[in-house]
Amino acid sequence: MSDRLYKVTHADGRLYHGIGRWNLPKNGQPGEWMPPILGPLVACRNGYHLCERDTLIYWLGEAIHEVEYRGEMIRPAQDKILVREVRIVHTLSTWTERTARLLAADCAERVLPLFEAERPNDDRPRTAIAVARCFARGTATEQQLTAAGDAAGAASRAAEAAARAAGDAAWAAEAAARAAGDAAWAAGAAAWAARDAAGAAEAAEAAERKWQTDRLWFYLDGGGA
Question: Which of 89, 104, 105, 182 is deepest in the core (most CB within 10 A)?
Fold first, then answer.
């Protein structure tokens, strides 16, 4: 198991799955320990759910926190860890709307060849991705955003028909369109889309997951400034 564990929440500490709010760090100090979990630890029912560095890509949201735990810990599935007591040590300041959008654009671009193989003369998704990157860096105009969003949406609808025969091509256009919208949703959708586009082969899926994880940590470690 990795030495470091992570939790993803809304910016204010609210959970994405379930109810409740985690105690956030204050004045440079870790958040208060969450109340201990009573009874048996059961995945998705009873316990605090955490993830490791290599599985963080599956749980992206508004805020990523490094956490520490004490007491009992179990691993009910490959992509999650369950603990009885936990607190947030600090929130990763490198995970922002900007880096989320850039990651989404990277993941969408990764699967563009699937779309372009079926529609080689359609550059709308590629244009939308380029504008999404400009938007993330604060250089896109409103006119560019509107045009790119409309183009990506149209390309996504066109790709859906082709995707029934060609596989996952539509996901590329949709991920590109979403990249210019809500950052957290876009990052998660693009990451899952790119993962699915790798195909059913286990080796290809593992390689794609590693690429996504490496790219995510490129940004979390301060890259792309």
Answer: 104
- Say if residues 115 and 174 touch (Cβ distance below 8 Å): no
Tell me, yes or no, whether 81 and 190 share the same domain.
no
**pLDDT by position in tens, the chain (length 225):** 457 999 999 999 999 988 899 999 999 999 999 999 999 999 989 999 999 999 999 999 999 999 999 999 999 988 899 999 999 999 999 999 999 989 999 998 988 898 888 888 888 888 888 888 888 888 766 665 565 566 556 555 555 544 443 444 444 444 444 444 444 444 544 555 555 554 556 788 889 899 999 999 999 999 876
Q: Among the three residues 68, 91, 114, which one is the final residue of a domain in this structure?
A: 91
Burial class (CB in 10 A: 0-12, 13-18, 19+), 177: buried
Query: In this structure, is residue 225 part of a structural domain?
Result: no
Within its chain, how far is the Cα of 191 from the centroid?
6
Instruction: Please name which of 126, 143, 32, 133 lies closest in space to residue 85, comparing C-alpha atoms.
Output: 32
Give the Å distances, CA to CA, from 53 to 9, 24, 64.
16, 20, 11
45 and 122 housed in the same domain: no
The model's pTM: 0.74
DSSP label at 71? E
Same domain, 83 and 39: yes
What are the helix (H) ranges across 31-123?
97-110, 112-118
